[in-house]
């Protein structure tokens, strides 16, 4: 029994290998990008819109409003990163209803990759918003003693992101696989539905946490300047 | 090991590519479409607001014009009614004036006709009366009547005032013409002498008295000298009668 889709390798060349996780991700990317390209090819700005266009508009506007609610005042800037995390994880979870499908998010490699992306994106956005010096200073706030703890915090939350998503998705797939061997008829369907729900919730959690981390990084400077202004006032 | 680092790297690259793809085919076009629609709706709303403002202004203008029109209508109606009343009064006055003029003309015509009729009646009456009187006096005239008329003339000469007598005598002296005594019939010698003696006595005049017979006098006798005359005639009475009858008719009409 395979614990991860990484173990199904199609092609290998030295360090690089083409496994099921990568291929599945490619398929998901193809479906998402191709579907969006097909729908947005006939976008209508004024007048009656198609159902697919309405679906995309709902997804995009909901993502924008969620990002804004989290505290990012320019949601369009972060929509590409956070929205893509949600769509990728959600679509990967949604496809679990397909028989024989192993979600790429059930691979620790994929969740680690996503967590590393967040880990890298947070300082990039923070430096972009506040500048390098101010962002670095946040690691020694409120005192330099907190430096190791802040570094550990950054690493641990990245690890937590990766492990949380991996655990939830892998456990769902494993439970279904195990139940299929015990009660192969009705109960796995229920668990699949539950896994679908869990997958959606995890997609939401992952993207919201990424948004929160980015918001925390970008708003540190503005919050401090606000506090200073209040103190001076 | 659960983490395959080559897969991790591949998945990171895949994720970045997916970000680019979705930005290219999802986020940008959808956000652009939404922005375009929002702008279109905003422009439509502003256009509708402008149209509404224009409509409200038009409505206010219409209401104002309607009020002005109503006011003008009422004022014009009042002016027309006033003009009509004035025209009516004018026409009534003209009609009244014409009526009065016609009535006055009619009254004048009637008065004239009445006067003419009255005159005609008087004239006819006088004519008849005179005709009858003339006939009667002709029938009754005789020498004795002539003698009586001569007596009456002598009496009248005697009854003249002193001023009249003086003026008459003065005119007798200043004229070369002879004194004429006219009568209807030939006066007898005795009456002629009586008249001559009366003239001599009253006017101190004793020459050249001419006696003429004038049947037109009907029944009368007169003493003429230049512009003075002393006479008696039944025609005088008849003329007085005619004048009296005419005055009586006019007084009756005035009443």
Describe the protein in words:
The complex is a heterodimer of chains A (233) and B (255). Chain A is mainly α and 233 residues long. Chain A has one domain (5-232). Chain A contains seven helices and two strands, in the order ββααααααα. In chain A, β1 and β2 (16-19) form a beta hairpin. With 255 residues, chain B is an alpha+beta fold. Among the domains of chain B are: 77-140; 142-254, no CATH class. Chain B is 79% helix and 9% strand. In chain B, strands 2-1-3-4 form a four-stranded mixed β-sheet. In chain B, a hairpin with a 2-residue loop joins β3 (220-225) and β4 (228-233). In chain B, α1 (5-140) runs antiparallel to α5 and α2 packs parallel to α4 (189-203). Chain B is rod-shaped and about 205 Å long. The relative contact order of chain B is 0.07. At the A-B interface, β2, α1, α2, α3 and α4 of A face α1 of B.
User: Which structural class do the helices and strands of chain A define?
Assistant: mainly alpha
Largest interface, chains and sizes:
A-B, 45 and 33 residues
What is the total number of structural domains of chain A? 1
Strand order of the largest sheet of chain A: 1-2
Fraction in helix of chain A = over 70%
Please describe the topology of this protein.
The complex is a heterodimer of chains A (233) and B (255).
Chain A lengths: L8 E5 L2 E4 H22 L9 H20 L4 H20 L13 H23 L1 H6 L9 H36 L4 H46 L1
Antiparallel strand pairs in A: 1-2
Chain B lengths: L4 H136 L2 H17 L2 H13 L4 E5 L5 H15 L5 E5 L6 E6 L2 E6 H21 L1
Parallel strand pairs in B: 1-2
Antiparallel strand pairs in B: 1-3, 3-4
Helix pairs in contact in B: 1-5, 2-4
Q: Short summary of the structure?
A:
The complex is a heterodimer of chains A (233) and B (255). By secondary structure, chain A is mainly α.
């Amino acid at each position: 029994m395979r614990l991860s889709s990484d173990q199904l390798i199609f092609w290998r060349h030295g360090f690089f290998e083409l496994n099921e996780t990568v291929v599945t991700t490619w398929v998901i990317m193809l479906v998402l990008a191709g579907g969006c390209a097909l729908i947005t090819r006939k976008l209508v700005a004024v007048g009656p819109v198609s159902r697919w266009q309405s679906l995309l508009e709902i997804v995009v506007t909901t993502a924008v409003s969620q990002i804004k609610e989290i505290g990012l005042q320019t949601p369009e800037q972060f929509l590409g990163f956070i929205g893509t995390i949600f769509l990728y994880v959600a679509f990967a979870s949604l496809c679990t209803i397909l028989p024989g499908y192993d979600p790429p998010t059930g691979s620790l490699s994929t969740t680690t990759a996503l967590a590393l992306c967040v880990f890298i994106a947070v300082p990039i956005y923070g430096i972009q918003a506040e500048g390098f010096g101010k962002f670095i200073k946040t690691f020694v706030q409120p005192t330099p003693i907190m430096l190791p703890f802040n570094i550990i915090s950054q690493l641990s939350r990245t690890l937590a992101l990766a492990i949380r998503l991996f655990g939830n998705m892998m456990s769902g797939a494993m439970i279904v696989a195990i139940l299929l061997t015990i009660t192969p008829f009705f109960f796995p369907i229920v668990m699949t539905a539950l896994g679908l729900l869990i997958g959606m919730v995890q997609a939401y959690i992952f993207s919201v946490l990424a948004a929160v981390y980015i918001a925390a990084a970008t708003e540190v400077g503005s919050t401090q300047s606000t506090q200073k202004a209040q103190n001076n006032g | 090991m659960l983490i395959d680092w080559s897969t991790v790297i591949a998945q990171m690259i895949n994720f970045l590519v997916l970000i680019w793809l979705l930005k290219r085919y999802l986020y940008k076009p959808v956000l652009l479409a939404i922005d375009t629609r929002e702008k279109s709706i905003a422009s439509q709303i502003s256009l509708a607001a402008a149209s509404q403002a224009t409509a409200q202004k038009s409505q206010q203008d219409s209401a104002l014009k309607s009020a002005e029109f109503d006011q003008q209508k009422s004022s014009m109606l009042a002016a027309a009614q006033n003009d009509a009343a004035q025209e009516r009064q004018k026409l009534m006055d003209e009609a009244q004036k014409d009526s009065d003029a016609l009535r006055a003309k009619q009254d004048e015509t009637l008065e004239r006709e009445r006067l003419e009729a009255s005159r005609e009646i008087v004239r006819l009456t006088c004519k008849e009366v005179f005709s009858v009187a003339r006939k009667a006096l002709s029938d009754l005239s005789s020498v004795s009547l002539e003698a009586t008329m001569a007596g009456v003339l002598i009496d009248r000469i005697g009854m003249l005032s002193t001023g009249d007598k003086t003026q008459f005598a003065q005119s007798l002296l200043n004229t070369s013409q002879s004194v004429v005594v006219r009568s209807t019939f030939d006066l007898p010698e005795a009456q002629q002498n009586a008249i001559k003696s009366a003239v001599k006595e009253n006017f101190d005049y004793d020459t050249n008295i001419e006696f003429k017979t004038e049947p037109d006098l009907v029944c009368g006798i007169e003493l003429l000298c230049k512009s003075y005359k002393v006479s008696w005639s039944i025609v005088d009475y008849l003329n007085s009668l005619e004048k009296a009858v005419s005055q009586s008719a006019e007084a009756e009409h005035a009443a």
